[in-house]
Amino acid sequence: MTKMTDLTAIYSKKAQMKIQQMAFVLLAIMIFFAMVGLIYFTISIANVQASAEELRDNEARETVKKLSGSPELGFTSTTDCSSCIDLDKALILKDSTRYQNFWNLDFLMIEKISPESSSVECTKTNYPDCSQITLINKGGSLSTKTAIVAIAHWDGNRQSFVYELGKIHASAKILGNQSG
């Protein structure tokens, strides 16, 4: 009878060893797939963040393009420059606080680039001998987008409209820094 129990003990030790080996292999396979899954999700999240930044940039570009056609900034005195930005309107809007959240932007500036003039912020006292009008400036980390636009303004000395070349800069805060 002792032979039978010895054989049973030997077979049960081999069976236990096989079960332990299989458990370790299954555990190693699970750890491998968990690591592959973590790497996949890390890359996916990075792609989502990059896509969100790209969408935000595209929205800022489209907003910059649409601003020159908006009635608030559009030049409507004559029909020869329907897509021009009216600097006279922009100067009036600069002093108004009602339009700070109208375009959903954190920074909006119109800059004259041709003909060149001194780099001075426009005020009612130095207008039109200035180069830039900052309509909105909320500060913070900004991703600015720029577009070339035509600018028009009334020249009181010559009693006519003056057409110039300019840039419009617009931006929205980077995703992690948005409040509200």
Folded structure, characterized:
The protein is α+β, with helices and mostly antiparallel strands and 180 residues long. The protein has two domains: 1-38; 59-174, no CATH class. The chain is built from two helices and five strands, in the order H-E-H-E-E-E-E. It has helices spanning 2-67, 87-95; strands spanning 85-86, 107-114, 132-137, 142-155, 160-173. The radius of gyration is 33 Å and the shape is rod-shaped. The termini are far apart.
Key words describing this protein structure:
alpha+beta, five-stranded mixed beta sheet, 24% strand, rod-shaped, disordered C terminus
How many discrete structural domains?
Answer: 2
Radius of gyration: 33 Å
Low-confidence stretches: 175-180
Strand segment count? 5
Percentage of residues in helical conformation: 40-55%
Number of helices: 2
Element pattern in H and E: HEHEEEE
Overall body shape: rod-shaped
Biggest β-sheet: count, sense, barrel? 5 strands, mixed
In round numbers, the mean pLDDT is: 79
Q: Strand sequence of the main sheet, in spatial order? A: 1-4-5-2-3
Strand content: 15-25%
Terminus-to-terminus distance: 82 Å
Oligomeric state as shown: single chain
Structural class, judged by helices and strands?
A: alpha+beta
